[in-house]
Amino acid sequence: MKNVNLKIFGFSNSRKAGFTILELTISISLIGLIVLIILGALRLGYRSIESGEKRIEYLERIRSSFNIIDSQIQSYSALTYEDQGEKKYYFIGKRGLMQFSTNYSVWGGEKGYVIATYTVTPAENGKQILYVTEHIVGFESTREAKLFDHFDAIYFEYFFKDPMEEAGKWVEEWTEEESVPEKVKIHFIEGAKDLPMIIPLRIKTSLTEQDGENTADDAE
Predict the structure, then answer these.
(1) 44 domain residue, yes or no
(2) Which residues in the chain land under pLDDT 70?
(3) Domain total of the chain
C-alpha cells in the first residue's frame, strides 16, 4: 500500500505551472485593448477641453468686438470740417461702409479725436469680414483691425426721420449732409438668422442745432 499509484485517481506527482501560449496571447490582447480605450478617452477629453477653450476664445472675441463698436458709436463726437466754405460732418453712411468721428480709440490710450471707418469686405470662403480703421486727427498714420470674419453677410442701416413726419424709416445710405442719423443698425446675418445691433447716437443731430461746433482744425 506504500506504493500507491496516484495516477489511478487522476492525479499527477508533478503539475505544470504558468500560462499557455494561447492564454498569454489573449491576456496581451486584452491589455492592449484596454490601453487603446484609455488613450482614446484621453484624446477625446483633450480635444473637448481644447474645443471648449477655442469656443470661449471665440465668444470673448465676439463680445470684445461688439463692445468696440458700441463704445465708438456711443462716443460719437460731432466733428466737422470745412469744404468750400461749408461745414460738413465726418459722417459717411453706406450699406457696406460707415465712417464717423469719435473720441474712443480701439487701441486705447489715444487722446483727442479719431476718424473710425468700418468696412465690409468679402472673404475667400464666401463669408464677409468687418474691418475697423482708425485715423487720428492731425496725424497721417492709420491702424486697422479685423472685428468679424464668420458671418454670411454684414451691412449697415441708418434711421432717417423727416421733421415733417411722425414716423421714421431705416435707409441703407445716408445722404443728409447737415445731419447724422439718430441711430445706426448693424445687421449680422448667419444662415437664416438676422442678428441686428441698434446703437443710438447720443448727440444733437443737425448742424443748425449746434453752437460752437468743433472742426477738424480745432481738433488738431
Answers:
(1) no
(2) 1-19, 49-55, 58-59, 109-111, 203-220
(3) 1
Per the listing, cell 435707409 goes with: 171
pLDDT for the residue numbered 77: 84
Instruction: Give the pLDDT confidence score for residue 9 in this predicted structure.
Output: 44
**Which residues, in sequence order, are bridge partners of residue 146?**
131
Instruction: Report yes or no on 125 lying in a domain.
Output: yes
Report CA-CA distances (Å) from 50 to 46, 170, 183: 6, 42, 40
DSSP per residue over 76-138, as a string? B---EEEETTEEEES-EE-SSEEEEEES--SSS---S-EEEEEEEEE-TTS-EEEEEEEEETT
User: What is the residue range of 140's domain?
Assistant: 65-219
Which pLDDT score is estimated for 212? 47
Q: Report the sign of the C-alpha dihedral through residues 199, 200, 201, 205, in that order.
A: positive
> How is residue 102 written as a grid cell?
469719435
Instruction: Give domain status of residue 76, yes or no.
Output: yes
Cell of 15: 503539475
Residues 13-30, buried b or exposed e (16+ Cβ, 10 A)? eeeeeeeeeeeeeeeeee
Structural element, H or E, at residue 155: strand 153-160
pLDDT score recorded for residue 39: 83
Task: Check: CB of residue 172 under 8 Å from CB of residue 156.
Answer: yes
- In this predicted structure, what is the pLDDT of residue 13? 47
Question: Would you state the pLDDT for residue 54?
Answer: 66
Other beta carbons less than 10 A from residue 37's beta carbon: 10
Q: In this structure, is residue 168 part of a structural domain?
A: yes
Q: HSE (CB half, 13 Å, CA atoms) of 70?
A: 9
